[in-house]
Amino acid sequence: MLKLSVSFTALSVLLPFVSAQSATWGQCGGVGWSGATTCTSGNTCVSYSQYYSQCVPSSQVTTSVSSASSATSSSASSSASSPASTSTVKLHTLAKSKGKLYFGTATDNPELTDTAYDAILDDGAMFGQITPGNSMKWDATEPTQGTFTWTGADQIVDLAQANGQILRGHNCVWYNQLPSWVTSTTWTAATLTSAIQTHCGTLVGHYKGQIYSWDVINEPFNDDGTWRSDVFYNTLGTTYVQIALEAARAADPDAKLYINDYNIEGPGAKATAMLNLVQTLKAASVPIDGIGFQSHFIVGELPSGIQTNFEAFTAQGVEIAITELDIRMTLPSTPALLAQQKKDYTTIISACQAVTGCVGVTVWDWTDKYSWVPSTFSGQGAACPWDENFIRKPAYDGIAIGFGN
Ligand code: G3I
User: Which molecular-function annotation in GO is an example for this chain (predicted)?
Assistant: First the structure.
């Protein structure tokens, strides 16, 4: 049974004198919304929060109560054809109340034209932190050597600041999404060092004082714990890490400097390699403040020992964060898969909750509508806590439970 909060506006489908109506899955209300507040035939306007109401097919919503005095306090019991969230908490507010710095999400510029998406993204009680999914990457910010473009990144920084959301910067040095001039130049150690210093220094410096933490280095290791072969490692060996971190520190002394990777959430060769790198950098007084655990998981396949592994990192004097969380499944989703996904979200969130040095959690976009998963893993998806129609899934409740709600 799906529990939905149905607003007073649900009744308005019965009212005459309707001038314009929203179609299925369109927005039909919320703070700041100036469009239609009724739905086309066959749909019901459902309020998810004071910020967002949506036209849901009436066949998926069976309202038994609707006598509210306001959209925010109305309540109703409803049913739908697939399981959904029943939690009423906002996730950033909850995370803060449990001692974390933030609960946040990645977003990307093309999505921002979707006003229904924006209505939820802009809710600072839901998302207290934003990571640009693509627009701070090297190909976006320095497409030609020495020429920087900030348009996309600035749009997201401005949006986050308008919403009172803190920012994670992503990223300075990564083997992927590099402009061709980086990958095709014949570098010497000196010229590549200079290029890294210019890129990281200019990027981090442009946002000085505005970014909580930077993924200065992204994905340096292979899954077996060996160093990834890329233009940086092949030219400079492991020293590129120090070069980038020091350039970032000089550009913004107050930003937390992170190394970010996947498949390091549980103990194993890759986690050990990262732990050894932290120890080596610390011993050499290279600036390193945090490790990001991307946490791109598969339903039912989370590693064991996550909390113990997290504690091994914080014991080295770095903070940690879950930076790109999603938990994908083979499609189509089923109630059983969604129930397991809920448990898996609880598992990873509760590991962060249990470790004081785990400062926050970022999902790699909050809705399946804009998840990176289907285009990368054919036949897989449904990885996010909200579905493609912006309806909260059981995973949402799993997150709340993980934070101890
Ligand atoms: O910018 C081009 C655009 O010009 C072109 O028209 C379009 C056609 O497909 O492609 C656009 O580039 C896409 C880019 O996102 C920007 O939208 C790439 O094809 C696409 O592959 C790229 O995907 C991104 C992926 O990183 C690249 O590896 C995802 O959106 C992004 O969510 C994902 O994020 C990464 C993190 O940075 C690091 N950790 C893993 C995570 C998931 O892969």
Answer: cellulose binding
Spell out the residues 6+ positions from residue 318 whose beta carbon is closer than 8 angstroms to its own. 278, 282, 288, 289, 290, 291, 357
- Ligand 1 atom at minimum distance from 139 CA: 1
**Residues 85 and 392: beta-carbon distance below 8 Å:** yes
My answer on whether 151 and 52 are in the same domain is no
Residue 194 lies in a domain: yes
Instruction: Dig out the tokens for 120 from the structure.
Output: 């939820």
* Residue with CA at minimum distance from ligand 1 atom 22: 134
176 CB within 6 A, ligand 1: yes
Task: Enumerate the active-site residues.
Answer: 324
What confidence tens digit (pLDDT) does each residue in 241-276 have? Answer: 999 999 999 999 999 999 999 999 999 999 999 999
The model's pTM is 0.83
State how many domains the chain has: 2
User: 215 in ligand 1 pocket by Cβ < 6 Å?
Assistant: no
Cα separation, 291 vs 272, whole angstroms:
13
Answer whether 134 contacts ligand 1 (Cβ < 6 A).
yes
